Amino acid sequence: MGRAFQVRAASMAKTAAAKSKLNAKYGRLIYVAAKAGIPDPESNLALKKEIEKAKKEQVSADVIKRAIEKAKGGSAENYTLARYEGFGPNNSMFIVECLTDNTNRTYTEIRTAFTRCGFKLGMDGSVIHLFKNQAVFSYEGLNDEETLDVLIMAECDVEDIVFDDGLTTVYAPSTEYAKVKAALEEAIPEINFLEDHIAWIPINWTTLSDENDIRHFLRFKATMDELDDVQDFYHNVDEENIPTEE
Predict the structure, then answer these.
(1) Tell me: the pLDDT tens digits for 105-141?
(2) Are 235 and 94 a contacting pair, CB within 8 Å?
(3) How far apart are CA 75 and CA 57, in angstroms?
(4) Is the distance from CB of 188 to CB of 203 less than 8 angstroms?
């Protein structure tokens, strides 16, 4: 229980504020990818991947174009990847990945968010070993047995396949991302991925039942959604029985 629900939650409609955050997120990712190589998606696979993800999230063509043009113009902006790990109630754990042009500002914002919710910011490596870095794909059109046949034929390494209410979710080592995606696209040319990314998936899930713990968890999650430097936020809390709003 938990993982299939997380996939559904991730694909829910976003608010205007979240949409603005999404545009900023992909604007940075596309800028960094374009600046790190050739600012042409046909020659820069990392850039092409970020553009494809941005389009799937309905990021406007104007946002994508501006980010690439900014990289072409030789902007002096430099972004650093930063990861923070921490703990919450009932063995809950958190991984926050950021892309920032000011690591001191970002660290202060993340530390403050943890402290205000009564959580504890941990050291590097304190949490991440309890998660797996996996490629995650969810879609409709093939069940788990059909999917397994396709991936075996393509000689893909897969860790788990979950089929729930018509939705199939594949979990594979992050190194298998491109291979698994190509196999699925070949099997279903018109495939529409609801999830298509590399994520930190917890080895064990936990539940929160105390109302105060749930309130703090939702507050922390909302803060992560609001902070511009936060690119991705992972945790091991099963949200299936947690309300979407406080």
Answers:
(1) 999 999 999 999 999 999 999 999 999 999 999 999 9
(2) yes
(3) 26
(4) no
Extents of the domains making up the chain: 3-72, 80-129+205-235, 130-202
What's phi and psi for 34, nearest 5 deg?
-70, -40
Buried b (16+ CB within 10 A) or exposed e, 91-109: ebbbbbbbbbeeeeebbeb
With tokens 């829910």, the residue in question is 12
Topology alike, domains 3-72 and 130-202:
no
With 0-12 / 13-18 / 19 or more C-beta atoms within 10 angstroms meaning exposed / middle / buried, residue 192 is exposed
Q: What counts of helices (H) and strands (E) characterise the chain? A: 8, 8
* Cut 0.90: pTM above it: no
**Residue range 156-205, pLDDT digits in tens:** 999 999 999 899 999 999 999 999 999 999 999 999 998 888 999 999 99
HSE toward the beta carbon, residue 206, CA cutoff 13 A:
18
Cβ atoms < 10 Å from Cβ of 201: 19
CATH number of 130-202: 3.30.70.980
In this structure, how many other beta carbons lie within 10 angstroms of the beta carbon of residue 174? 14
The CATH code of domain 80-129+205-235 reads 3.30.70.980
Residues 6+ apart with CB under 8 A from 81: 97, 98, 99
